[in-house]
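Amino acids appear as letters; backbone shape is given numerically. Here is one record.
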Amino acid sequence: MRLQITLNILLAILFTLFQVTLLSSQTPCENGMAGEFPCFGFDLQDRLSEADLNTTFVNDSWGWTNPDDGKEYAIIGLRNGTAFVDISNPNEIVLIGTLPTHTTESVWRDIKVYENHAYIVSEANGHGMQVFDLTRLTDITATPVTFTEDAHYDGFGNAHNIVINPESGYAYAVGTQTFNGGPHFIDISDPTNPTAAGGYGLNNYSHDAQVVTYSGPDTDYTGREILIGSNANIVALVDITDKANPVEISTITYPTIGYTHQGWFTEDQRYFLLGDETDEIDFGFNTRTIVFDFNDLDNPVLSFEYEGPTEAIDHNGYVLGDLFYLSNYRAGMRLINISGIENGSIEEMGFFDTYPANDSAGFGGGLWNVYPYFESGNIVLSGGGGFFLVKQNSSLGVNDIDNQDISVAIYPNPAIDEVHLSSNKTIGDVKIYNVLGQIVIAKTLLEDGTISVRELNKGVYFVKTEHSTTRLIVQ
């Protein structure tokens, strides 16, 4: 009995040491940095460099959760293929293997997932669409391995991106040499037997798109399959329910167009958040997001524009609940609270910067994509520097995102000499933090009040109220 107790104690100690070892590989965001990376509200779980992934360039990413055991996997686009990474232990991620490119190398490679299969396209000549059965990842014991594709679709050569509507079982390749660069329809209801289903060649070259089975406020289109194309210089809304007869619903433009790049619906399908890839360079904006009101699909309108705190070029952005996860080349992932979108107000509340050198309006070396849809809360970042796995920490708890009982407005933003706070309730204690997490101003306010910020250096600051409402201001 005494021997058994001793063994149990020893096992408990070993297990505790094992847990500590695993946790020690996490790099927490402390004093505004996670190791060498600027951050606010996000810890670095683990990362793989380009060299770790046996490539010289990392581009797109997506994710897959095994429905049988809940294990999570990141899918990372490479110059020379596609990498599959087991992130089920987020502090000790494992490269399982790589699927080589179908033809030649390319900077552009994009992936989406449907029914436990990955669909991969590239701008490499003659690449077509690769199909890979993701359940094969669960049987690998010795890593990394080199995979072969399970099927291939050659209805087009190169493509810029692949879009999938999981509710309909169709994939849409955009930026191909077919249909004038418009969406190329593919039936993937039988995942390893993709078949051509037509296409749509109007409204210019389609650089990116989102396709949904519509459930938004415009009841004229309820249940219809709607494509929203980001088409270089316009946004196009198309009813593609009848694949043999796609019908344009409407198009919309906006002032100072650089390159209409990519956008995403809010979850209620009312608003569409669009990124223009070159407006920061062409017109001198800070990172700009154009917000459209799609309450009436036949008559879309520009609602408002949002500029972030840096000059960085935005790339891909995705909505999850009241949060917008936006990748910026040289300013990393920016987390934007969109709970006030109906009032024309969205605001940054956290970030993880994978490009520490600067936040300038340049392309080289920065973040390409963010995938925020894992149940665990782990977030995949991919681009220059490789693959990063990050997770929101306690400094950005759920209550910090929005508080249903209290509404706090902060203006002007950017702040000039002072910032005004107004609320429907007593605000109470207010603390302003710099990006190092240091309190630079502390004050108590009633329902409305003004705080002088003229003594602060130019930069980014975070305002936290007594009611756990966190807001970002720029001075």
In short: The two ends are 67 Å apart (CA to CA). Residues 33-401 form a domain with the Methylamine Dehydrogenase; Chain H fold (CATH 2.130.10.10). DSSP finds three helices and 38 strands in the chain.
